[in-house]
Write a structure and sequence with these properties.
7-stranded mixed β-sheet; 4-stranded antiparallel β-sheet; 1 helix; 127 residues; globular
Length: 127
């Protein structure tokens, strides 16, 4: 069975950093689309970053470009989201997701339809 488990969330002050982790199992980690998403209270889901793990190609939302970095560790089957220069508006539940059947540019095009999602980890940024 596919399992995605996020960790690394917590509370930080404005300008701080966090690194989120997503431990993946049950599929071929090194040839899948994966991504990070977030949802703040009362708001819809926002795509933050995607990666095609076969080649490491990435895509970022404008809201986080230059501050957040998505990366992979094939040896650990783990996806990361390094978050720097955090702002109060970054406060949200953060989710990782994966789709082993998508490739290349479809990682971005069909990110809203990824098959598997984690349970989420809370990030709170205070001013």
């Amino acid at each position: 069975q596919v399992q995605l488990v996020e960790s690394g969330g917590g509370s930080v002050q404005t300008g701080g950093s966090l690194r989120l982790s997503c431990a993946a199992s049950g599929y071929t980690f090194s040839s899948a689309c994966m991504g990070w998403f977030r949802q703040a209270p009362g708001k819809g889901r926002e795509e933050l970053a995607t990666i095609y793990t076969a080649v490491g190609s990435t895509n970022y939302a404008d809201s986080v470009k230059g501050r957040f970095t998505i990366s992979q560790d094939n040896a650990k089957n783990t996806l990361y989201l390094q978050m720097n220069s955090l702002k109060p508006e970054d406060t949200a539940m953060y989710y990782c997701a994966a789709d082993p059947d998508l490739r290349g540019a479809d990682c971005v095009r069909y990110s809203g339809w990824y098959k598997y999602w984690g349970q989420g980890t809370q990030v709170t940024v205070s001013s």
